[in-house]
């Protein structure tokens, strides 16, 4: 109850108890909590109830709500949202736990999200649902790293969206508070050069399946609805159904909620999530503070990883051209294009994923730019996953592109060497003469008489 009082009400309480009523809000809270901890008269208890009733006239006050942490409790100094903002039902505050009284980042979470035995807060236990015990509050869920976002802080760690399966539509409420440093990071990243206000440092909301076997992709619960600080949050639009009668789905991706977040160190931010329960499936959500990066930065980082030794590709060529005794057809050469399959232009930065088994490369610049607009990270050659962290620049293709500037296709031989391919016109012309090792000549097209 004390922690929900405003500055003016705390000053009234301390003045009534004959204590010093000057100082900042967290200092006033410290004094008020110390007053309760050391024991106070029944008159002071009544004054707290009176101030609380005046602050929340519709809320019934039970005697147990005066219970406060004892002197050995790990958190004795609290901080709440100011400015007259009341937390929704089911929310309580985690307190500052800084060393020597210095504030450290505070988070505001539902009591159901505090692990058993971690915080012995009383008075709000009636808000706990019976389903909370069926799911781990903070499962060991990890979301996949997003190449275009560097994570700065974890505002709400991956948290189960618990449902009791008794009702089709479920709803839960979470909250967090920003530290002064986080507010500064967001505010200073504002870009108003365009038509709308953008932030490079963002508060990002993500959903995924509650699976712990591997890092999870973004995955929205069905019929998802999100409100941040009471305002509806825009979600990606529904994709057209691939088949008749199939329910349309939203493309699951991170949600930038920065524009709806209160850039305040004292007023908490609340997120209300509603969704449709699914039997046998559970979901988790998390909130991160991230810094958005551009395709040029990702390209720079890829270059910084270095160029893969050409011997790796030569070994792959030899492996592919090694005669298979069980095969009736022996492969003695491989033809590879020097054009990017994405833009049909000559490769500038030849790359492919470590997981790809083919020699054909694609252009790193174009591939990263396309995934900046629509992140799929699928190899344009083999249609398999080619995530950014698996990309490598192929040193052999860099050598080939630098030494052969006038042809668009090459041929690899069994020993790992290569030769430029002739154009169709040139092949027709030389077919009347002796071949004379023509593939090793210059790749310039000969002209007719």
From TrEMBL:
Reading the lineage from the top rank, the first entry is Eukaryota
Which of UniProt's keywords are assigned here?
Isopeptide bond, Metal-binding, Nucleus, Transcription, Transcription regulation, Transferase, Ubl conjugation, Ubl conjugation pathway, Zinc, Zinc-finger
SUPFAM superfamilies, per the entry: SAP domain
Residue ranges, annotated region (Disordered): 430-449
Q: In which pathway does it act?
A: Protein modification; protein sumoylation
Which Pfam families would you find in this protein's record? Answer: PINIT, zf-MIZ
Q: Which residues form the SP-RING-type domain?
A: 325-406
According to its UniProt entry, the protein's GO biological process terms are: protein sumoylation; regulation of transcription by RNA polymerase II
- Every copy of the PINIT domain together lies at 129-293
Please report the stretch or stretches of sequence annotated as the SAP domain.
2-36
Q: Which InterPro entries match?
A: PINIT, PINIT_sf, SAP_dom, SAP_dom_sf, Znf_MIZ, Znf_RING/FYVE/PHD
Q: Which PROSITE patterns match?
A: PINIT, SAP, ZF_SP_RING
Cited SMART domains: SAP (SM00513)
Gene Ontology cellular component list: chromatin; nuclear speck
What is the name of this protein? Protein inhibitor of activated STAT 1
Organism of derivation: Takifugu bimaculatus
């Amino acid at each position: 109850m004390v922690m929900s009082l405003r500055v003016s009400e705390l000053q009234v309480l301390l003045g009534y108890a004959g204590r010093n009523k000057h100082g900042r809000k967290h200092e006033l809270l410290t004094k008020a909590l110390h007053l309760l901890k050391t024991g106070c008269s029944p008159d002071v208890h009544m004054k707290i109830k009176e101030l609380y009733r005046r602050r929340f006239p519709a809320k019934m006050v039970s005697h147990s709500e005066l219970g406060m942490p004892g002197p050995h409790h790990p958190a004795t100094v609290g901080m709440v949202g100011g400015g007259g903002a009341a937390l929704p039902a089911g929310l309580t505050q985690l307190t500052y736990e800084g060393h020597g009284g210095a504030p450290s980042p505070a988070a505001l979470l539902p009591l159901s999200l505090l692990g058993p035995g971690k915080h012995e807060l009383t008075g709000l236990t009636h808000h706990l649902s019976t389903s909370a015990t069926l799911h781990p509050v903070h499962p060991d869920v990890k979301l996949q790293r997003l190449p275009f976002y560097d994570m700065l802080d974890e505002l709400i760690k991956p948290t189960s969206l618990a449902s009791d399966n008794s009702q089709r539509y479920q709803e839960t409420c979470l909250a967090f508070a920003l530290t002064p440093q986080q507010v500064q990071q967001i505010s200073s990243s504002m870009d108003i050069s365009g038509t709308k206000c953008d932030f490079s440092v963002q508060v990002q909301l993500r959903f995924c399946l509650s699976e712990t076997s591997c890092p999870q992709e973004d995955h929205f619960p069905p019929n998802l609805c999100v409100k941040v600080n009471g305002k509806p949050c825009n979600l990606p639009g529904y994709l057209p159904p691939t088949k008749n009668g199939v329910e349309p789905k939203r493309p699951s991706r991170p949600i930038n909620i920065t524009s709806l977040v209160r850039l305040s160190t004292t007023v908490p931010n609340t997120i209300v999530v509603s969704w449709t329960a699914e039997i046998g499936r559970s979901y988790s959500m998390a909130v991160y503070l991230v810094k958005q990066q551009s395709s040029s930065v990702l390209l720079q980082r890829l270059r910084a990883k270095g160029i893969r030794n050409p011997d790796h590709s030569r070994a792959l060529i030899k492996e592919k051209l090694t005669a298979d005794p069980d095969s009736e057809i022996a492969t003695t050469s491989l033809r590879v294009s020097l054009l990017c399959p994405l833009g049909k232009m000559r490769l500038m930065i030849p790359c492919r994923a470590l997981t790809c088994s083919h020699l054909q490369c694609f252009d790193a610049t174009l591939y990263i730019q396309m995934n900046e607009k629509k992140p799929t990270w699928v190899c344009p050659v083999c249609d398999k996953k080619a995530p950014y962290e698996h990309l490598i620049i192929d040193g052999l293709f860099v050598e080939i592109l630098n030494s052969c500037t006038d042809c668009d296709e090459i041929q690899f031989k069994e020993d790992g060497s290569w030769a430029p391919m002739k154009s169709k016109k040139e092949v027709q012309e030389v077919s009347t003469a002796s071949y004379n090792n023509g593939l090793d000549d210059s790749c310039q097209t000969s002209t007719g008489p």
